[in-house]
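Researcher: Let's do a round of design. I'm pasting the structure tokens now; please hold your answer until I've finished.
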């Protein structure tokens, strides 16, 4: 699986609760992805706080890495592999 580096802001529908952030849908430009599984979650320290990284797969047969800022819940699509 080859990933393309994206690093762009995306619109993400998140479910937040029980100490977890779970993405449900991701809109990147005109394309919408529906997340079916989160396979890995890790934190990366950036300044005073840590960004949350999520490795996900979608029903559209894509794998993606999302980066969430826990302070303002802004989201970026870091990497994407389709097919």
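Researcher: That's everything. Go ahead.
Model: Designed sequence:
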């Amino acid at each position: 699986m080859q990933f393309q580096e994206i690093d762009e802001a995306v619109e993400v529908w998140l479910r937040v609760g029980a100490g977890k952030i779970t993405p449900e849908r991701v809109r990147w430009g005109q394309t919408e992805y529906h997340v079916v599984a989160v396979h890995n979650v890790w934190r990366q320290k950036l300044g005073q706080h840590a960004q949350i990284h999520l490795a996900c797969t979608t029903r559209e047969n894509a794998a993606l890495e999302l980066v969430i800022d826990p302070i303002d819940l802004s989201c970026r699509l870091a990497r994407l592999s389709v097919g």
